Amino acid sequence: MLVLHRAEHGPEYEGDWAWTPPAGSRLVGEAVLSCARRELKEETGLQLALEATPCGTGEWAVFVAKASPEAEVVLDAEHDRYEWLPATDAVKRCRPDAVSESLARAIAWIRHRQAQHGTYG
Description:
Helix content is 34%, strand content 14%. It has one domain (2-117): Nucleoside Triphosphate Pyrophosphohydrolase (Alpha-Beta Complex), CATH 3.90.79.10. It has a 3-stranded antiparallel β-sheet, with no helix packed on it. A two-stranded antiparallel ribbon has the order 3-4. The two termini are 15 Å apart. With 121 residues, it is an alpha+beta fold.
């Protein structure tokens, strides 16, 4: 799982919102999927096929994407580092609970799909 560290409070900050998956806010009139694509590209430089999940809330959409092991992450100024983590570690790293819980739901959804189809996607 790709998680990003926000630069705002410095490289040592580990509190709420320090580590999250790529995320962001919609522009006025922007469609949710367009926002997710834009935020992923802005924050990581990645352009990936996104898939909506049922793991979000009415106010928080959750998408997943599969990146190749060779994918090059290019961070924006909002973030100072990133890590690819095993699923369990990513959930533990992300806070507040709203972030870690939605990530845990997305991981469970991916695993369910893998069990049904033999692979993600």
